[in-house]
């Protein structure tokens, strides 16, 4: 753990603090997001003589409170009253969030850019939102719902817009994955055995990179993967269909060998549902 202690010659000594990278990891966001929150005045960490920010335990508690409101869709500009005043009644808070939902506004802005062909503006919106909010919110609350909406229509124009959006998502995910490699964080391999929608891999990679993980992505299906070529901390095996007997045997062998493998995608949900129905919990 990257914990900073104050210099011995300083009097009185300050308690241990956490670097911006460590604080970001605890919150599941990028350091750039914490810097934006600082500029909005949501958090004010201490600085050392070199100008570096250090977060205390109380700062981390405040960050988690901010994260809770942000995830609920409260716009950043409206968060300070929630933090500085007693708890708002749940019914009133729900009305405020619905009226000022960050997600609805961003969805509308993205669809407008796609409809009018304003792709440079769309890129700026994604880049800005990706700095201000956790990337898992961008993926789950904005990008996935928009793609589902565009995919439900038989209109060729909306299919074209979905293709444009997918290209920009890949572009943005590649940027985030590349920048996350500047720090030697936990390495993750994301490998698909079977996938219905290849763009889902990029969305998952974007979420993981947004949590500070170093993601290696194999974008094509690999029916019989060989993990020996990769030295990473976690192997995430994606499948949207139930593993066949050969694949399941290989997956079980990895587990028996002590490899940190995890099944993700629809197959993981099917497995959980099967265990629940059969009382294996």
From TrEMBL:
Keyword presence, Membrane: no
Keyword DNA-binding annotated: yes
SUPFAM superfamilies with a match to the protein in the record: Putative DNA-binding domain
Key words, A-Z: DNA-binding, Transcription, Transcription regulation
Pfam families (UniProt xref): MerR_1 (PF13411), MlrA_C (PF22267), MlrA_helical (PF22270)
Domain HTH merR-type: 17-66
InterPro entries on file: DNA-bd_dom_put_sf, MerR-type_HTH_dom, MerR_fam, MlrA-like_C, MlrA-like_helical
GO molecular function: DNA binding; DNA-binding transcription factor activity
Protein name according to UniProt: MerR family transcriptional regulator
Protein source organism: Rouxiella silvae
């Amino acid at each position: 753990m990257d914990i900073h202690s104050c210099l011995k010659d300083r009097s009185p000594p300050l308690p241990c603090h956490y670097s911006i990278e460590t604080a970001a990891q605890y919150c599941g966001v990028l350091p750039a997001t914490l810097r934006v929150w600082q500029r909005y005045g949501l958090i004010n960490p201490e600085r050392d003589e070199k100008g570096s920010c250090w977060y205390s335990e109380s700062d981390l508690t405040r960050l988690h409170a901010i994260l809770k409101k942000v995830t609920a869709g409260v716009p950043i500009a409206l968060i300070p009253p929630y933090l500085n005043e007693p708890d708002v009644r749940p019914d009133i808070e729900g009305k405020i969030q619905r009226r000022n939902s960050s997600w609805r506004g961003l969805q509308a802005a993205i669809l407008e850019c796609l409809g009018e062909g304003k792709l440079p503006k769309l890129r700026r919106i994604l880049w800005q939102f990706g700095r201000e909010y956790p990337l898992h919110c961008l993926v789950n609350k904005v990008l996935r719902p928009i793609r589902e909406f565009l995919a439900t229509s038989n209109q060729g124009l909306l299919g074209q817009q979905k293709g444009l959006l997918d290209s920009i998502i890949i572009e943005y995910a590649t940027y985030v994955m590349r920048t996350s490699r500047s720090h030697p964080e936990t390495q993750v391999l994301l490998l698909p055995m079977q996938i219905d929608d290849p763009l889902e891999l990029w969305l998952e990679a974007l979420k993981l990179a947004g949590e500070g993980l170093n993601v290696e992505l194999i974008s094509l299906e690999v029916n019989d993967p060989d993990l020996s070529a990769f030295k990473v901390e976690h192997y995430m095996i994606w499948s949207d269909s139930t593993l066949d007997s050969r694949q399941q045997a290989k997956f079980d062998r990895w587990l028996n060998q002590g490899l940190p493998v995890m099944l993700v995608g629809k197959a993981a949900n099917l497995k959980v549902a099967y265990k629940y129905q059969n009382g294996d919990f």
